[in-house]
Amino acid sequence: MEKKDIKSLSLQELEAEIKELGDKAFRAKQIYQWLHQKLVTDFDQMSNISRELRDKLKEHYTLTALHAIDVKISQIDGTRKYLFRLADGNVIESVWMQYHHGNSVCISSQVGCRMGCRFCASTLDGLERNLTASEMLDQIYRIQVQTGERVSNIVIMGSGEPMDNYDNVVRFVRMISDPNGLNISQRNITISTCGIVPGIRKLTQENLQVTLALSLHAPNDEVRKTLMPVANSYKLADVLAACREYFDKTGRRLTFEYSLVSGVNDNLQEAKALVSLLKGMHGHVNLIPVNPIKERDYVQSSQRAIQEFKNYLEKNGINATVRREMGRDINGACGQLRKSYLEEESKGG
Questions:
Q1: What's the rounded Cα separation, in Å, for the pair 46 and 57?
Q2: CA 70 – CA 93 distance, rounded (Å)
Q3: End-to-end CA gap in the chain
Q4: Could you give the 3-state DSSP secondary structure of residue 118?
C-alpha cells in the first residue's frame, strides 16, 4: 500500500481521511494544527492524539520534513541561504531575508528547472521533478522553526517555474494562507513566472489575491529570445495581454522583473522601448543587477547605467525600484548554492 502525503492534504481532505480511518472528524483539525501551526516533524509529537490513531497515521501516511544540510549566513545583511535535502535525496534551496517590513522567504517550486533562462544557475542541470505542496510548505516551516521568527512574506522565485508545477503551487498558496495553518495573507505572496500564458490565464480564474511577477528582462521579443528560450513559445504581446487580464480580474498590481545585463539590455534605447511596452500596465518594474554565474559570461551593469535606466523609466511615468542585493557573499542568486553542492558531491567532496 502506497502511503499518502499527509502534509499536502487540505483540512477538508484530511477530515475525509480521518473518517475513513474510523475516527471523529474533529481529530482532523487537531492533526492539521499540529502539522501546519505547531510544525511537528513526527506523528509521536502529537500529544493530544491517541496512540492508536498515531499508529494508524504512521501506517497510512508519510510526514514530509526537510533536512537542512547547509545554512549559509551573510556577513553583509544577515540573509540566510538554506540547502534542504528531500526524502528522495534531491536537494533544493530557499532564502530567508530580513526587511524593515518583515521576514521574507524565497522558496523553490521545482528541483531544478527546464526553462533555460541564460542568466540563471537553477536551470543549468535541467529539471529533476516538481515539488509537492508539502515540500514547498516545509521550506517555510523549517526556516520559521530554525530562525524562531514569523515569516510574513513569501516569494515563489527560487529554483523552478511555478506555472510548470501549477497544481501544487496553487495548493501551497491555499494551504499557507489557511487560518488553520500559518495564515499568511495571500496579499503577501508573490508568484513569479517567465511568461507561461496558459498558466497566467488559469491563475486569473483561481480567485486568489497573490501578486503576479513577470520575469520580463527585455523590452522586445528579439532581445528576450536571446535571454529566455520561453520567448520562442509566447510572444510578449500575448504575455502582457494575460497579465492585463490578471490585473483586471484581481485588482492586484503587477511586478515586472528586469535583470540588467551589461551591454545586453541596459541601454537607454531599451529603457525607451520598455516605457512604450508598459504604459498603462498598472505595475512597477523591479530592476535587478544580474548576479554573475561562472557558467555564463554575463556582466552586471554599472551603477551609473542602472541609475540612468531607473531615472529614465521614472521620468516617463513608470514606477521602478532597484532590488537590494541580498546575500551576495553566500551565493545568493537562484540555484548557485545547489549547483556548487552538486559539483562538490560529484567530485566526491
A1: 11
A2: 9
A3: 37
A4: coil
DSSP-derived secondary structure for 192-235: EES--HHHHHHHHTS---PEEEEE--SSSHHHHHHH-GGGGTS-
Cell of 81: 541561504
Percentages of the chain per state (helix, strand, coil), in multiples of 5 = 40, 20, 40
Distance CA 84, CA 136 (A): 11
Beta carbons within 8 Å of 341's beta carbon, 6+ residues apart? 69, 70, 83, 91
What is the DSSP-derived secondary structure letter of residue 44?
A: G
Q: How far apart are CA 172 and CA 337, in angstroms?
A: 24
Say what the pLDDT of residue 346 is.
59
Task: Please say if 334 is a catalytic residue.
Answer: yes
Q: Are 114 and 40 in contact (CB under 8 A)?
A: no
C-alpha cell at 11: 483540512
Find the catalytic residue in 15, 17, 93, 161.
93
Please confirm, yes or no, whether 113 is among the known catalytic residues: no
- List, for residues 76-94, the tens digit of each pLDDT value: 888 999 999 999 999 999 9
Q: Is the pLDDT of residue 99 over 90?
A: no
d(CA 221, CA 231): 7
C-alpha cell at 263: 551591454
Cα(245)–Cα(248) distance, rounded to whole angstroms?
Answer: 5
Threshold 0.90, pTM exceeds: yes
Q: Residue 5: how many CB atoms within 10 A of its CB? A: 15
The residue type of 104 is S
Q: Where are the alpha helices (DSSP H) in the chain?
A: 11-20, 26-36, 51-60, 133-147, 166-176, 197-204, 221-227, 236-250, 268-278, 303-315, 336-346
The residue from 106, 117, 194, 334 that is catalytic is 334
User: How is residue 124 written as a grid cell?
Assistant: 543549468
Query: Please, which pLDDT band fits residue 101 given cuts at 50, 70 and 90?
Result: confident
Rounded to whole angstroms, the Cα distance separating 116 from 122 reads 9
